[in-house]
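Worked problem 6 (solution included).
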Amino acid sequence: MQAIESTDLENKLIALKKRVSLSDSLIVAYSGGVDSALLASVAHQVLGDKSLAVIAKSPSITDIEINKAISLSKTVGFSCHIIKTDEIERPEYKANQPNRCYFCKDTLYQELSKLASKLNYKTVANGTNHDDLGDYRPGIKAASDHGVISPLAEVGLTKTDIRALSRDMNLPTWDKPAQACLASRVPYGTQISSKLLNRIGAAEQVLRDLGFDQLRVRDHNTIARIELPISEFDKLLTPLIKQEITKRLKSLGYKYITIDIEGFRSGSMNE
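Solution. The predicted structure is:
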């Protein structure tokens, strides 16, 4: 991890706590990832019972990841609430155009706003960080439309900062690989369905069961395009592992199992 001046991190953490304290009560859109886990933890430190982490259960995130997020909340000690979202029922989401993420987040923030009103929480926050502001993320507009705040981004915390702070705070997510929603594995224009997302989730779990951590399985109908760090290609091509992956992914309905020779990279469907 890149070295960061401790005083810079300390100042950003102070600024984050101050920003969070401006909310009398706060709901955090929580996924169990490195960003939202840090925000939920800090919100709990600052606001105590007046903060609530809320995770959305939907086909775009696996049950395994949801269970990990719940387990983390218990380990760290902050409250976690589960809601269900139905973005999969929205025609705009299923159409899977480049602005798909807007409709997913729009659905999420609608539900979080309803929950905040019901439970008398004044503000909803997300885990958007400063790096995200320079990427193509339609969900940021959805946050703006619903008045959702982004404390991490507001105080200038980058992903590297967040990992460093998480490590300092002994959060087990400090080195967790980024986990975008499963719909991000599907080429734009290919319709999204629960069945398709379940297949992708199952395919990625096959690789995790075999000891791979940072990965994507991109779904191209009959083709599974596996992205892994290039340093793990040799392991992937070990005869027994290659045979097991081929057998199990073909059992999910893929005819061809391929490796992307450019290796793992987030957002490759935007290329």
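Discussion: The first helix runs from residue 6 to 21.
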